[in-house]
Amino acid sequence: MGLMRFMHVCGDKTLRRWFFIDKRFAAVLRGSLVLLMDLKTSLNSPVFVDPLPSLALPSAVMTYTTPTSFPASGLYLNTPKKKPLPSKIEEVRAAGWLDLMLASSPPRKRQGKEFLPNDIQADDLDLRYHNWMVKYPSALTSFEAITELARGKRLALFLDYDGTLSPIVDNPANAVMSDEMRAAVRHVASLFPTAIISGRSRDKVFDFVKLTELYYAGSHGMDIMGPVRKSESSGHPVECVRSTDSEGKEVNLFQPASEFLPMIAEVFHNLSGSIRDIDGARMEDNKFCVSVHYRNVAPHDYEKVHQRVTNVLKDYPCLRLTHGRKVLEVRPVIDWNKGKAVEFLLESLGLSESDDVLPIYVGDDKTDEDAFKVLKANNRGFGILVSSVPKDSDAFYSLKDPAEVMEFLSKLAAWKEEESS
Ligand SMILES: [Mg+2]
């Protein structure tokens, strides 16, 4: 795979994008101007291959030029605005969102003899969960099979943060990880390359984790601080910026959505004003994306939250709305996600083209599915879904909650140390 830059016509703006594409295809396209249709965006907007030369990266080259600034408005191509949808379709779409919002977070795990209005329902849930685990076996009970797979291979670990390393809590600012979990993550990071890939801003997730041994990708992978490869020389093309981490170590910063920063700041401001009067609604600035948390909103106000957010977004065709666990997320329409971040980090680590590498991704959320898909599609590693309720996933294994994640990480570290001794 190689990276290639495309010009993306989005609404009335032209933006530059990076895509992973087959290197042979990149060689054919390099330097030419070709019109493609971007089928992945809901806008069906055209995508032009950037005519600039030398933009397809050989896999061994991972240094980049400084990102371009947000283009002046006079440079945008004018494309017709989207026609408004018939109101009935809008109603159906809004109803679908409302269903998602109501169902977005699994019920909390039962504690001891907590009262349940209907024990039969609870038993049914347990039965469905156990049936589901036939399809998504526990990574703990399947640990021997996993280590058989990992034997003789180099492991790379990718970990989501919220709901994976820390429990989901009412106030996202309080989602701290335990000291025991931090110790377990530090231990695996001393044995395998380990990265955290979170929807939060990179700085915020680092404040929670506080481990300099890791690589961090914030804003759903749109803000990556990765390693500088030993084989790199200076002066190579592309959009990584050489920087230093908190310990002064040289790193590469990759921010494929940097041109959206002013727009995201503006939307954050507008959304904050729009939902201010809704009890329990909470905004979070995640740098390249904006989160609207509704975990503490009364269910009868969910529709109001969704309406306010979509009203603000009508003026921003280059932004899209996605849905996580009791959170609506606004992010740029770019072909970049946690799956692309995994590919990018594997390549940065020099692990993307070897058969002896086994990447494992552990996550609990819908956005983690992009990473599960990448590992599954290329058949090079596998995902572990953290969930206490049955849900469809592209992961291969499952773990019930962060406590089981910690146990899995500890077992993995112990196995590796025994192997190496
Ligand atoms: Mg999560």
From TrEMBL:
- Could you tell me the Gene Ontology terms of the biological process aspect for this record? trehalose biosynthetic process
Provide this UniProt record's keywords sorted from A to Z: Hydrolase, Stress response
Cofactor names from the entry are: a divalent metal cation
Looking at the keywords, is Mitochondrion present?
no
Q: What is this protein called?
A: Trehalose 6-phosphate phosphatase
The protein's organism comes out as: Brachypodium distachyon
Its function, per the record, reads: Removes the phosphate from trehalose 6-phosphate to produce free trehalose. Trehalose accumulation in plant may improve abiotic stress tolerance.
Q: Has the keyword Membrane been applied to this entry?
A: no
